[in-house]
């Protein structure tokens, strides 16, 4: 089940003072997500410094920009070859045997205060069978109890606030689902990326839970097909995977984002399953 | 300026059900902190799994314990050879040139909501000279505005709560200083460790700020000499460096912690400086 | 359905500096709650200033005490003659016709942030029939979703925190039920009082909701019989009805509280109903 | 020192469903604030129910409006004859002797969590002389540490949030000053009103502190002359004095507010003092 996906974005900024930009818009490189070709073009034509950083080696580009109108354009052609498992056969991992690098995703983080929601999580989901289906139940609960309401949250909104106000956007849905999973003892992390046919088009935020021996993708908003998610980077929460971090004085003027499935129908055949998908 | 330090701890637990323990009590290994010898003994004599994990490769030991009374005893002989710089010559680093792996320490974290305190930090410290002395000013402010009050905070207390209530313990002092530094654009991280002659004896929490091209140690509580700090591990905040994480059902019965400077006076000579110290 | 109830308390304090005490321990006077006799005795024998204050004219006693050991003893013999209505016939009042003095109990207050929980309340209870039974449903939800856990909260804990952590004591149960009612547009207020046979004996905190044209009593903890609740005072939340407010330096040494039903069985006959009860 | 002030407002709403409006836009009646004439006109010409409610007997108008475009117009001609005292002679009142009805204004309220800021208040202002000048110092501190930033806060923002983010509007300035006063043991309350020559024209929020034996006016924003403040109502915080409370479905289309000093210069003479002013 292989997919070819074209993604991209155009960002333009009014840069008023010398500003350091840190972009996370390039697609991640994993065994299951191959970047066949990509380009990152700045206008004016400035040299960017590319590196990978953080616990997940997220790809970043850093550039210092003097006052101007800056246009940033990224295009990528991606081949996804996800691992696909039968959800009913995927159990939760035990902290006794979990890979060490996964343990950090049990800790609370800025937007995912799992230390505050452990009792809540156990009360709602503690009685459920311990496996893929329990994470799915968490995501269903989040989707059914929140209203998708642009403008209802801001960059400081945390999972507990979202749980109380029962409204948010994709980032908030992911944060709440992550927090509840961690509260249950299931490692969970935030993923930023592109999503095929997302309406309205935008960057997307979703999540992964560690089950069995790998990370599985979930989108608690149900706004995307999980089989059409292209990863930019992962982290403990949105603080780790900001699309653009600015240090200086600049203003976003315009943003366009897209992602399309361009799989050759002859090669594919049939719809992809939408659960049990791993691309990490 | 070399120091020999003996550190150790005894922890005993009543384990009531099968419990997974994750200990972070072993001393870190860095070019400036050499572990000459160490031992970790469990009674009953259980095999532990040792590994390094997380962005800072903190050393951890994992063990699954069935119901019993568990005693854990760690001893280490450490040689510290800190890098010591003249504080007046240490400037802040620019985000344009900072090493990529440092950037994550500008992000807010669970107990350090730097996104909420940027304006506060700039108002109090924005006018100061940008260098080591500014971090020192932050630490002084924290020390002078907080009361060291055991019991005033708990494991969910964040830097903003500490700032409002003006009381806390070492962990809270460190969290607030870290948060204010990040608010100023200075990378800062939490360090857990042993502190020579700490009164009352306990594990200690302090911080590092990234200045120039390295991490410098600060203790906003002023309860320890910075030259006598022995690192266990570092992370974004205390969530990353818990001394013991338990999954199961166990209760701490007793805890003893110690750290002594056993430097041969013939070899040393004179007191160590207390600023401009790096051991990362 | 008349009841005779004996209530009382003994409080003793170590007063270390001149301290102003404000006590709210005397029973309220309402058409349905008659104080047949009462006494308030201080040892040393100090004169207290008695007055009624606040929107509900709560009874208070003020006294200035110099350093000493202070004993305060209150005893009251109360006759309750509640209004008792058939719950099924009690509807919610409309804001268009509510008595003006009731409107303030729709506002958020310190411990009842109803502005934050309106959406939550509507999602959980918005579809229910609008009447006494809806408030009962709120109280049931609170009782079923919280664990009664002494020590889990403190004097700064608010309804939203209780909702997240799912634990609290009587005061917290009342705050959460009040907050959810206000979120639904139902005026609700906090009542402090004595409760017959409360185990363990203590002062009690419960609530009233305004329905139809009067205030009805509810105890979301289910620890007391509503027919055995004796009112001290009411207010927006516990901030308005503190048993003792101290300004100075004193420490509570001991506290005893009691309340017994001493109704002459010959006069009574049969158990009181436990719903539809008004004593305001 | 008498002043004649003309105040007024026009409010228009698109009413989409039957909506209950509760307006607090009429000027308060006090010994020092006489309403010489006033009018409240609704278009369509609906009958309003006028009453006074709450602890401060704030004047309110209630009206039920069916779908339409509603225009509400209030005009008042006010004579202010403030009590004016020499600030240096006004001391703080003792809780031992304060009038009972004032005590409630020492309690924390929804937007003024004085229980959380007592230590902060004492640290910053505890050493100051206990009198009018201390409240002035609190107001000065608030003015100097906050940025007046429309849009930086919303209807759920509390004093602690304002203190951390160091930005707000008039309501937030008043909340923070009130909270700090209560933290110091000084009764303080919120006042909504009209302010002569306020720029940009709007309703205004300010505060009163109880000193000596009366309430004194303060405006921590310094945007108005205290001598030109016309009171609508007072309460524990903004939750008690909302200009308009809506229950139904309506949208504010337009709002105009004004207040002008029309004192006959022949009668007056000279500028009014701007401190030590009471109009309660």
TrEMBL record, chains A, B, C, D:
Residue span, Transglutaminase-like domain: 162-222
| Alphabetical list of Pfam families matching this protein | Bact_transglu_N_2, Transglut_core
**Gene3D superfamilies the UniProt entry points to:** 2.60.40.2250, 3.10.620.30
Superkingdom field: Bacteria
Q: What is this protein called?
A: Transglutaminase-like superfamily protein
* Annotated source species: Aureliella helgolandensis
